[in-house]
Amino acid sequence: MNTDAQAAELEAYRAIVEAAKMEILARMPKSEPLGWKLLTLILPIILTSILGFFVFKMQSNITSRLTLTQDYYRKRLEVYGKLYDNLVSVRERAQRALNEPITSAGLDDTVEAFNRSYSGNTIFLTQPLIIASENMWKDSVRAIAEPSISPESLATIRKGADAVERQMRLDLVGD
After folding, report:
1. 169: domain CATH number?
2. How many CA atoms, within 13 angstroms, populate the side-chain half-sphere of residue 102?
3. How many domains does the chain have?
4. Which domain holds residue 151?
5. What pTM was computed for the model?
6. Of 50, 67, 106, 124, which one's alpha carbon is 20 to 30 angstroms from that of 92?
7. How far apart are CA 46 and CA 27, in angstroms?
């Protein structure tokens, strides 16, 4: 009996040890599968790369648009500068033509240069400026068709030049 009691006692200890072992194993954190570990490691890298690519594409698109816009407005300012220089020349020559014949004052060449300046660069001009420039050009052509410029024609040219200048200022300040 002694052996049976010892065997029973041994079996009881084994059961207690096995229960303790199971309890310890249950409380220990279980290791995740290898596939899940790889997925949690690689997925953020892939998603960050994709997001970075989209941000790069959007940024390069914005940068190229900004560069084109800057180039456009730089060219537009240059065109407005040349147009204004021609406008000043038309005003000066028209004033000179009041006292001299139109041909010796050089008004006809200046009016032609003004026409080339605005008609060759209409892509950079606003529609109201194109209309004002065309009206001024037409008034100037009518004035140079006369042998000498009259004070009324000079006033018409000045009025047209003022309209062009006013529209240029609106365009440059309004943009």
Report:
1. 1.20.120
2. 19
3. 1
4. 64-174
5. 0.65
6. 124
7. 34
